[in-house]
Amino acid sequence: MHRIRSRSSLLLIDAGGPVKHIQGKRKHSMKKKRGCIVTVAVFCLLSMFSCSKEKDTPAPTPPGTTPPVTNVPDFDIDNLNDTYAGIAPFEFRFKWGPYNTHDPSIVKAGEYYYSYSTDAGYGITVPAGIQVRKSKDLIDWTFVGFAFNGLPQKGKEFITQRGGAPFESLWAPYIMKVGGEYRLYYSLSSPSPRLSVIGLATSSSPEGPWVEKDLVVTSLNNSSIQTNAIDPSVVVDEFGDHWFYYGSAWDGIYVLKLNAATGLAATPGDKGRRIAQRGFTGNSINGNIEGPEVIYNPELDKYFMFISYDWLETKYNVRVGRADSPEGPFYDFNGKNLNDPEDNLPMILAPYQFMGHSGWQGTSHPAVFRADDGQYFMAHQGRPGQDKYFMVLHIRKIHWTEGGWPVVSPERYAGVTQSTVAREELAGDWERIVLRYNVVPGYANEQFSPDFQVATSLKLNADGTLNNDAGSTWTYNAPWLELKWSDGRTEKVHVERGRDWEKKKASTLLFTGLDDKGIAVWGKKL
């Protein structure tokens, strides 16, 4: 069965209010019972504003140049807020830091981490080119400029030569380094359903200039069975072979082999094959699937696929599967094949809400990378509960359970100094979030609620019991805390020190882990 959806940038005007730019992935819904495709008519808004865009939008930074950063105050982590309307306009781009980031991809180059992300902004139209940022510590980010000065020619020509009109924005890039060459994969789509391309550009520097090489994979607006050619990712296996993953909606997630020397398809024209899809409720798809990110963990000798589920503005969440081979099959926590028509666990990140905070939604499209010291991280966007059109770069530490599954910190990374947490420090009041999931089949129109997973109170008593239940107990063998509940559930979680971002508290205790059913559990000490 086909799931149909593509991505677009919409300009929405509120009467009497500002123009809002929403970087969104627009679906093209399909009424399966009638066997016909009904395209959502939203694209007239794009053409409505196309005439004024060139005139009103400041010119993008030329590729390969880093303009001087002016009027940027000294960094103070407490000044990082959930919203940023005051500096959202393009003229303040060198003050954006982590703001206006969507679909990030991260690479380490020398002393800097570089982030490459979708052309998106709050309340503005961002020039086409892929936003580039850099940071030495994954906390304080500096806007560098754009990788391209407009749309790459080969990608643009492919779409126009087939009767389409490409969107004036690039999406969901993927960055990697091969020898002395940086490879930047980009996604370019159009209002025509599934008329999309993924192209490759290369450079000897993470800041460019970038030279477009060729198209890696394409998809057409026709009746063929294929996924949408956006959202690329690459993994290099233990033998040095390169494997390419991509896809959004339609026929799920695909894999194909690359020529390691060129970064292009090993077999020209190869579209690959499907290795992951969503489940169904009756004849309705449970939601979107896209944004694969695959890594190889040499210590575990496993390949891990991180996938985005659901609508990007609200219910967006991260699922994980693992395999012995980059070609799959990838299996979930319960041993189910990700290529079977059902949803999978674990879900390690989802919209959440700690007490006294509006929460974070749209928390997916992960980039997973490893620091020089071996610590794994996940980067993704978050949209604050108070206004889902803001987009903020989140970085979280990844820990690995004793069973070999990744889990992420409940709080963003802040460089908090780590030391062994003593048992007596654990006793006291906590907030606890269990990442449960409610199926809401459909896309944007149906998944209008973020389905926040909300914190509840948890008390670890000094005598080893939980809350007011003598039958529920906890034990601790640093850094692993085990919670055994009187109803038979067991949760094993990793404890560390971290920042309380909601209360702007420099350091507290955090935990993250899974229960015996593969459900993610988070905690934060008050």
From TrEMBL:
GO BP annotations of the record are: carbohydrate metabolic process
Q: Which InterPro entries match?
A: Abn2_C, GH43_arabinanases, Glyco_hydro_43, Glyco_hydro_beta-prop_sf
| Domain called Extracellular endo-alpha-(1->5)-L-arabinanase C-terminal: residue spans | 410-523
Q: Mind telling me which Pfam families this protein's record contains? A: GH43_C, Glyco_hydro_43
Q: Where is the active site?
A: D103 (proton acceptor), E290 (proton donor)
Site positions (Important for catalytic activity, responsible for pKa modulation of the active site Glu and correct orientation of both the proton donor and substrate) are D231
- Keyword Hydrolase present in the record's keywords: the answer is yes
The alphabetized UniProt keywords are:
Glycosidase, Hydrolase
MF term (GO), any: hydrolase activity, hydrolyzing O-glycosyl compounds
Q: Which pathway does this chain act in?
A: Glycan metabolism; L-arabinan degradation
Can you tell me which family this protein belongs to? Answer: Belongs to the glycosyl hydrolase 43 family.
Protein known as: Arabinan endo-1,5-alpha-L-arabinosidase
> What organism is this sequence from?
Pontibacter akesuensis
